[in-house]
Amino acid sequence: MRIVVNSAKEKQLLLQLSDFMLKQNIDFYLEFEDPLSFQLEEILSELCACDIEVDKKEPSTGIEGL
Q1: Which residues touch 38 (CB under 8 Å, ≥6 apart)?
Q2: What distances in angstroms separate CA 34 from CA 3, 9, 39, 44, 52, one per listed residue?
Q3: What CA–CA distance (Å, rounded) separates 59 from 40?
Q4: Which residue from 6, 9, 22, 55 has the highest number of Cβ atoms inside 10 Å of its Cβ?
Q5: Please, are residues 4 and 61 in contact by the beta-carbon 8 Å criterion?
Q6: Among 54, 45, 60, 49, which residue's Cα sits nearest to residue 12?
Q7: Model-level pTM?
Q8: Per-residue model confidence (pLDDT) at position 51
Q9: Computed over its alpha carbons, how large is the radius of gyration of the chain?
Q10: Distant-in-sequence contacts of 15-19, Cβ < 8 A, 24+ apart
Q11: Rounded CA gap, 66 and 12, in Å?
Q12: How does residue 30 score in pLDDT terms, banded at 50, 70 and 90?
């Protein structure tokens, strides 16, 4: 998976988010009746393993303070 952001600050924010999520040691409650938990685990794994690229042509995320 690849995420393209507008600036180095946005990239740093995503890296901080990824690091924070990894440190949380989230224990997903996986049950066949709860398909959402499978999706959340997959999304977290993808986020923590993705490549983040900076491209000034990419629209900004619009997060204030960046």
Answers
A1: 30
A2: 28, 36, 9, 16, 30
A3: 26
A4: 6
A5: no
A6: 54
A7: 0.60
A8: 86
A9: 14
A10: 15/52, 17/47, 18/47, 18/48
A11: 10
A12: low
